Amino acid sequence: MSSSINIEEWTPRTRVGWMVKEGKITSIDQIFALNLPIMEPEIVDILLPNLKYEVLDVVLVQKMTDAGRISRFRVVVAAGNENGYVGVGVGKAKQLRTAIEKALIDAKLNIVPVRRGCGSWECNCKEPHSVPFRVKGKSGSVEIVLIPAPLGTGLVAGDTAKAILRLAGIRDVWTFTRGETRTTINFAKAVYNALKNTNKLVTPADWGKKAWE
User: Fold this and answer.
1) With the CA atoms of 95, 109, 164 and 146 taken in that order, what torsion angle do they form, in degrees rounded to the nearest 10?
2) Which pLDDT tens digit goes with each residue over 61-113?
3) 211 located within any domain
């Protein structure tokens, strides 16, 4: 699934939004290079027009109030352009469609760049088809390790992890997980955190590059 926006009908509410609408920021890489916050989903709609999303989990949750028991849908959504950007969001609402829309907005606001590469000693093809090095992510009791795999291996992971990795543009990877992976929300966030951690280390290949490249 994908979404789009008409830039003429959009009225920004933040400084970054106005910079995007006026053409001062033309790439989402500039936003991350300048460490600017993304507080409007329309920014992502404009700078990543080919963004796709997938519903990972739908759960009916309940809570007790003075008025009685209230039931709502909790939805987990992953969004990405299949080329180095991914986000995971959670939304709650009484109506399923509203919950999905809230989760999608949350995923857009949590969009992060993913460093890709070929970190497998068995391959060394220098194509960005896997992760550049071993990386770990954790959420709740779930912990996942992404291990570089040679070209053609595919995504050796659970269904939730496969969806997020595919939206991030990762085609080959091995994974090792521990914890209660049946809890989809924690599993999804652990994979998201692992992909986010790929940018915490600068490799020799990044030396000499400009911040927005």
Assistant:
1) -140
2) 988 888 888 899 999 999 999 999 999 999 999 999 999 999 999 999 999 99
3) no
Q: Which residue, chain included where needed, has tokens 């490249």?
A: 213
Reported as a pLDDT band with limits 50, 70 and 90, residue 209 is low
Rounded Cα gap, residues 196 and 161, in angstroms: 14
Q: Is residue 81 part of a domain?
A: no
CB 88 within 8 A of CB 78: yes
CB atoms within 10 A of CB 96: 14
Q: What distance, in Å, lies between the first and last C-alpha atoms of the chain?
A: 28
The structure tokens 């391959």 sit at 123
- Structural domain for 14, as ranges: 7-47
Cβ pair 99, 73 in contact under 8 A: yes
Is the pLDDT score of 213 beyond 60? no
User: Which residues lie across from 125 on neighbouring strands?
Assistant: none
Where residue 144 sits, what CATH number does that domain have?
3.30.230.10
In order of 39, 56, 64, 166, 177, the CA distances from 187 in angstroms are: 25, 10, 27, 15, 9
Q: pTM of this prediction? A: 0.89
Judged against a pLDDT cut of 90, whether residue 203 lies above it is answered with no
> Is 71 inside a domain boundary?
no
